[in-house]
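Okay, can you check this protein?
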Amino acid sequence: MSGFLGQIVGSTAGLLTALPALLSELLGTAEGATGGGLPVLLAQFENIGLREKVSSWVGPQPNQPLTAEQVAAAIPLERRTAWAEQAGMSVADLDQLLANLLPELVDHATPNGELPPEEGSLPEAETLMTRLFGR
């Protein structure tokens, strides 16, 4: 893990504890998750004109990058604020973390190049943590 993501994870003690819950919430696999899961999350990015980026994350081509500004435009502030508080970080740092994390997260959550056909078929947060960080 290097760059900004490594700095954030290394400098934010609560993040490693909060990250599995955040991943579960993002993917909609958390108990009582209200975000709609991965399809809704991806639709939020497509709705702000990022369909090509989203397709790159799901499909076999290289993942196109995401910016913190694009994260802020796609995900409502109240949700990002709650996640940032849970992780013990600022909303701006969370936006940057998600910008760095989401392309890889989606890529690892869709290993066959498509969204899983049914709810509950996404990998658990711990599995994704292992794939993303080798832990």
In short: Residues 1-5 have pLDDT under 50 and may be disordered. The domain at 3-133 is CATH 1.10.10.690 (Arc Repressor Mutant, subunit A). Helices lie at 3-11, 13-27, 37-47, 51-58, 68-74, 77-87, 91-109, 125-133. The longest helix spans residues 91-109.
